Amino acid sequence: xxxxxxxxLSDLQEPEALDxxxxxxxxxxxxxxxxxxxxxxMAIVGKRFxxxxxxxxxxxxxxxxLKQIVQKLEPHLKKAGDVKKRGKVIVGTVAGDIHDIGKDxxxxxxxxxxxxxxxxxxxxxxxxxxxxxxxxxSTVVALSGFLTLAFDTMKETVDALKxxxxxxxxKIMIGGGQIxxxxxxxxxxxxxxxxxxxxxxxxNSWIGGK
Length: 210
Description:
The chain has helices at 4-10, 14-26, 31-50, 56-77, 101-112, 126-136, 150-163, 181-187, 196-207; strands at residues 88-93, 116-119, 140-144, 171-175, 191-193. By secondary structure, the chain is an alpha/beta fold. A five-stranded parallel β-sheet has the order 2-1-3-4-5, with helices on both faces. Helix 1 (4-10) runs parallel beside helix 3 and helix 5 (101-112) crosses helix 9.
């Protein structure tokens, strides 16, 4: 049955995708493995949007479907019980961008993996990131952006944190549809993550067991 959820979700087949998840969980399939398939599917959705095969409504629909699936998975992912919070991470989609699919998955995965997450939402002004770092003393900031115009705002955010004298105490990751190492260099971030699991790996390497 491997790969079926990837097809159902990427093809936006809502009843089939939800039914698959229900049956997989009922027979004891690993919730983390199912979550991995949703990330694979969302990467396909992103590519279809970039190529013009999918449009904004399709993107929104896929995000809503993903949220339904994550809600089903959540109790199974948190069975290990409450863990001591490892460290603080601020997450937000930068100003000018309203996409929250990738961001929400990153927030969820960081939370499940024991981080204290401050989700600032979408279209977040530069100053809000600065203020939140001061307020929480977080050492990790994750900037999300799907549109290319977000790259400039990411750079402005990193520059503002530098100007406030906060940059040296922070590790900054960026993520989103078309982000690569060139964009990371342009924005001044420390790293970029291809998906939510990569974001968790980065946070773990920066914060560790602290």
